[in-house]
């Protein structure tokens, strides 16, 4: 595709020159009768004989039909040359469209693929709105840059080289003089656009902040309205929007300066060239440069100005695009700290159990969230994790599917370090039900079947029945094909949670992770969800993070977390017997409630 576009650009440049060069013999015959040729020479493949015979035919045409018709005849040649030039130029642009859009498609695809593989830690330090801006606005900016780059490297150099060669053939002396002036003009344009890249990067960063505010507003709109904070959020957004507007105006003014400056400098260069060419004709006579050749030379030189000006405009665009590319690279080049061994082991089922050995973990390196924790979890047992908020419970279960990697200690499944397993196999062992049911703006069927290939209608319905969800699903307008809205907004909290449980049931995992799956529900919904969870837990190895102790009374083992450590372990009955135990204190507080 690149070679095809390159070829069409060469043809377009050649036809541009041809339409001008064909004017030279006609103008010379019209303005200087001494250039008339009245005899032919045998045809040979060299420029001298071809030009001589062409002069002969033009002379004969002039004698037979008159000078006016000869001039019209030359115009026909220009029209034909211009048509071929425009046709090949369009075909080059036609090819570029596919090239440009394919490049942008690949970048978008690569960004999305990178986003879904990056570790969770990356997103803790980056606003979601800023990520959306990088994946949309910055890519759009890059698209314009790609187009400028394609034109710069496939079209403009070709045209400039062809025009330059033609100009050197016509008048080497005049061409040398002209190209002493052009770099001076280019240097002036380059100095004007030097700071555009930094301004563009600042503008794109500011747009990322605007997108972040918009995302936060949409996510927290209920709170904004509940606290009458519309004016506050409006003021915040307007301030940031004005800051972006100020930056955008500076960028636009510098960008818009490219065309008038380049046109003005181009005019100066053209006038100087005309002066120098006229001087050559007047002082040396037409032996050095004829009037007709000089006129054709000016026509070619005028055509070289446009691609030269395009260089300056493309320079501005590329400066903006480079700023966008740097922001995109923050995603594309972000290190993926969850490494998978090339020869990772496969695992399809849990045979023995899970073991945490001397695990210490910190998110930032400043403070340990987990401190030297060791715990053995036999296959088929339900392990409950309780404790105050921030004590490390959720972090403990997030380490098992390698959402984060530990620096000290190790986690074993069936006696093998989880880092030695294939990541897809490791996570394939597990099912998650979180406090916030994460659903997608899709049908109920597709949400339940999410992550399970080729699930049948019967399997989906069976999973929904286990999760106590089938009845309310059938009461929906379109049953399992009902679209549930953004994050399941058309469903109640209990319904969303039961859909989430059905998704885990369908996956049929060996290891089940429940992270406060009922803490945000009302009593009736909690009962329905709890019944569904009991169905789900049967025969599975499970880690249950619980806030309400009533939901984990029957756990095989309860681990009490406090400030990153497991301070008590036992069954419900064993822990209640400890007079000064943390678990008993938590239990009594909940009994009082």
Task: Describe the 3D structure.
- With 593 residues, the chain is an alpha/beta fold.
- It has helices at 2-21, 23-31, 47-65, 67-117, 120-124, 128-135, 137-170, 172-192, 196-219, 221-226, 230-256, 258-284, 291-332, 393-398, 423-428, 444-448, 457-466, 470-474, 493-507, 523-537, 572-576, 582-592, and strands spanning 353-361, 370-378, 382-387, 408-413, 416-417, 430-434, 511-515, 541-545, 557-562, 565-570.
- It is built from 22 helices and 10 strands.
- The strands form 2 sheets. A 6-stranded mixed sheet has the order 6-7-8-3-9-10.
- Helix 9 packs across helix 13 (291-332) and helix 17 crosses helix 19 (493-507).
Strand content: 5-15%
Query: Strands of the biggest beta sheet: in what spatial order?
Result: 6-7-8-3-9-10
Ends apart, CA distance between termini: 72 Å
In terms of quaternary structure, the protein is single chain
Q: What is the helix fraction of residues, given as a range?
A: 55-70%
Report the strand count: 10
Structural class: alpha/beta
* C-alpha geometry: elongated
Major sheet: 6 strands, mixed
Uncertain residue ranges: none
CA gyration radius, whole angstroms: 38 Å
- Helical segment count: 22
């Amino acid at each position: 595709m690149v070679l095809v576009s390159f070829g069409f650009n060469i043809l377009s440049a050649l036809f541009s020159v041809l339409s001008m060069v064909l004017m030279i013999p006609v103008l010379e015959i019209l303005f200087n009768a001494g250039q008339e040729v009245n005899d032919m020479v045998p045809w040979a493949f060299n420029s001298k004989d071809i030009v001589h015979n062409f002069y002969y035919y033009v002379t004969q045409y002039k004698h037979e039909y008159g000078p006016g018709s000869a001039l019209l005849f030359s115009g026909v040649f220009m029209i034909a040359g211009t048509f071929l030039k425009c046709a090949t130029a369009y075909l080059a642009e036609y090819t570029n469209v596919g090239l440009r859009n394919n490049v942008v498609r690949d970048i978008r695809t690569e960004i999305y693929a990178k986003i879904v593989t990056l570790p969770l830690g990356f997103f803790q330090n980056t606003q979601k709105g800023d990520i959306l801006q990088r994946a949309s606005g910055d890519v759009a900016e890059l698209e314009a840059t790609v187009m400028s780059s394609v034109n710069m490297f496939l079209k403009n150099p070709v045209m400039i080289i062809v025009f330059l060669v033609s100009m050197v053939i016509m008048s080497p002396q005049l061409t040398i003089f002209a190209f002493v002036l052009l770099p001076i003009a280019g240097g002036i344009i380059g100095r004007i656009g030097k700071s555009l890249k930094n301004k563009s990067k600042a503008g794109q960063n500011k747009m990322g902040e605007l997108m972040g505010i918009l995302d936060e507003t949409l996510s927290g709109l209920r709170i904004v309205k509940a606290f009458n904070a519309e004016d506050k959020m409006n003021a915040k957004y307007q301030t940031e929007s004005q800051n972006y507007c100020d930056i955008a105006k500076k960028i636009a003014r510098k960008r818009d300066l490219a065309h008038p400056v380049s046109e003005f400098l181009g005019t100066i260069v053209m006038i100087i060239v005309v002066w120098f060419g006229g001087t050559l004709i007047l002082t040396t006579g037409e032996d050095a440069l004829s009037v007709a050749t000089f006129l054709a030379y000016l026509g070619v030189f005028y055509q070289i100005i446009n691609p030269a000006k395009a260089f300056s405009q493309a320079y501005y665009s590329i400066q903006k695009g480079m700023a966008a590319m740097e922001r995109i690279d923050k995603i594309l080049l972000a290190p993926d700290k969850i490494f998978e061994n090339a020869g990772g082991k496969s695992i399809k089922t849990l045979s023995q159990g899970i073991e945490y050995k001397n695990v210490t973990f910190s998110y930032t390196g400043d403070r340990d969230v987990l401190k030297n924790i060791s715990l053995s979890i036999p296959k088929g047992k339900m392990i409950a994790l309780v404790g105050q908020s921030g004590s490390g419970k959720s972090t403990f279960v997030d380490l098992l599917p390698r959402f984060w990697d530990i620096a000290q200690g190790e986690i074993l499944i069936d006696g093998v370090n989880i880092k030695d397993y294939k990541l897809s196999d490791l996570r394939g062992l597990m099912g998650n039900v979180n406090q916030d049911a994460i659903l997608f703006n899709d049908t109920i069927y597709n949400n339940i079947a999410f992550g399970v290939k080729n699930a049948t209608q019967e399997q989906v319905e069976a999973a929904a029945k286990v999760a106590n969800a089938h009845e309310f699903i059938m009461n929906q307008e379109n049953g399992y094909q009902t679209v549930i809205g953004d994050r399941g907004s058309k469903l109640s909290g209990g319904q969303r949670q039961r859909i989430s449980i059905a998704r885990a049931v369908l996956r049929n995992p060996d290891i089940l992770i429940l992270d406060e799956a009922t803490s945000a529900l009302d009593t009736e919904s909690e009962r329905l969800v709890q019944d569904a969870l009991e169905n789900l837990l049967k025969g599975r190895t499970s880690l249950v993070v619980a806030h309400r102790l009533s939901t984990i009374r029957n756990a095989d083992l309860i681990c009490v977390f406090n400030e990153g450590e497991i301070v008590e372990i036992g069954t419900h009955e064993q822990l209640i017997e400890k007079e000064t135990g943390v678990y008993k204190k938590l239990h009594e507080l909940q009994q009082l409630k």
